[in-house]
């Protein structure tokens, strides 16, 4: 199985991605780490631990908790995800579970399996930037970083120009973009194309004794309502689950080699991703960016993943 670390800010779409990852036989989720974003750092840590405990996957990942950036713009994801980030479920966490500092755990796991670990970034990139700063040698030892973030065509979500994860800690995003790592970016442009229709739950078995099934029946109806109320759409974006599908099946996406950076000081463009698309490109290529997505295959991949999680 392929080793992965999932860094996230749960968040309902983060939770769905986690479910798929934790029950996928092809993946070995060695660690999960939390960061501030959709909710503050403390809440994100509780949500992550609560999700792992409630889902009780066959292999328990180690859990790392991050502290979040010192300053962040005054935005969060509570309108779409609920005040606690997870449909106001207020998941219970046991005090027994051992929690590690996120950036140290990331460094340790990468050091333990050089070039083998895929780092999946589903939230603001604070922990990953800190790990790279703490131990610069790991850059060459990370197999690949798959990032849900950015807006290739410049149409953001949290602001007109910026995507949430890149906006929340723009400096961190820039640090990761500029690091000497192999990167795949799954931007909003493609995750938005794979919005899930209202019948998502109907496509899944409803097994009351299954923790994943229970959780999905609590999270998904909430997120449908919030998408209708906040965004005026009949359907849901599961950005992070789409990014996870790119970890499992990169062949469902068309990738382009690009040179990308993040705006860190702009008055109205903070966190905007900028790609050198000039005829004579001067910036060096530093990532592949998903430019096309096979929507039915990606949605099917997420649905199959959720079925596996429900079966346990
Ligand atoms: C990203 O921002 C968060 O709100 C979501 O969980 C996702 O990771 C989408 O812009
Ligand atoms: Ca997220």
From TrEMBL:
Residue ranges constituting the Inosine/uridine-preferring nucleoside hydrolase domain according to the UniProt record: 4-299
Q: Which domain of life is it from?
A: Bacteria
Name the segments for region: Disordered.
Answer: 56-77
Q: Under the GO molecular function aspect, what terms does this record hold? A: purine nucleosidase activity; uridine nucleosidase activity
InterPro entries from the UniProt entry: I/U_nuclsd_hydro_CS, Inosine/uridine_hydrolase_dom, IUNH, Ribo_hydro-like
Q: What class of enzyme is it?
A: hydrolase
Leader sequence range is: none
**Recorded E.C. number(s)?**
3.2.-.-
GO aspect biological process, one term? purine nucleoside catabolic process
Q: Which GO terms describe its cellular component?
A: cytosol
Q: Kindly state which keywords UniProt assigns to this record, in alphabetical order.
A: Glycosidase, Hydrolase
Which PANTHER family does the record match to this protein? INOSINE-URIDINE PREFERRING NUCLEOSIDE HYDROLASE (PTHR12304), URIDINE NUCLEOSIDASE (PTHR12304:SF4)
Task: Report what the protein is called.
Answer: Pyrimidine-specific ribonucleoside hydrolase RihA
Q: Which organism is it from?
A: Blastopirellula retiformator
């Amino acid at each position: 199985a392929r080793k992965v670390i999932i860094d996230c800010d749960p968040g309902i779409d983060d939770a769905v991605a986690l479910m798929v990852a934790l029950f996928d036989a092809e993946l070995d989720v060695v660690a999960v780490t939390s960061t501030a974003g959709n909710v503050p750092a403390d809440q994100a840590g509780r949500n992550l631990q609560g999700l792992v405990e409630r889902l009780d996957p066959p292999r328990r990942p180690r859990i790392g908790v991050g502290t979040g950036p010192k300053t962040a713009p005054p935005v969060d994801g509570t309108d779409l995800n609920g005040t606690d980030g997870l449909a106001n479920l207020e998941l219970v966490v046991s005090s027994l579970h051992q929690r590690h500092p996120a950036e140290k755990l990331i460094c340790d796991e990468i050091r333990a399996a050089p070039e083998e670990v895929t780092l999946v970034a589903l939230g603001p990139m604070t922990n990953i930037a800190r790990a790279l700063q703490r131990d610069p040698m790991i850059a060459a030892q990370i197999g690949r970083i798959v990032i849900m973030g950015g807006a290739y065509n410049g149409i953001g979500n949290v602001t007109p120009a910026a995507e949430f994860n890149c906006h929340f800690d723009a400096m961190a995003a820039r640090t990761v973009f500029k690091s000497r790592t192999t990167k795949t970016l799954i931007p909003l442009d493609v995750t938005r194309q794979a919005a899930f229709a209202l019948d998502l739950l109907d496509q899944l078995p409803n097994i009351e004794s299954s923790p994943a099934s229970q959780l999905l029946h609590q999270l998904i109806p909430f997120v449908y309502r919030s998408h209708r109320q906040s965004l005026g759409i009949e359907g849901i974006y599961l950005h992070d689950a789409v990014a996870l599908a790119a970890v499992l099946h990169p062949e469902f996406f068309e990738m382009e080699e690009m040179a990308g950076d993040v705006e860190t000081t702009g008055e109205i463009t903070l966190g905007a991703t900028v790609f050198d698309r000039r005829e004579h490109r001067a910036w060096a290529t530093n990532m592949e960016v998903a430019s096309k997505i096979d929507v039915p295959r990606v949605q099917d991949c997420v649905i199959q993943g959720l079925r596996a999680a429900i079966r346990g």
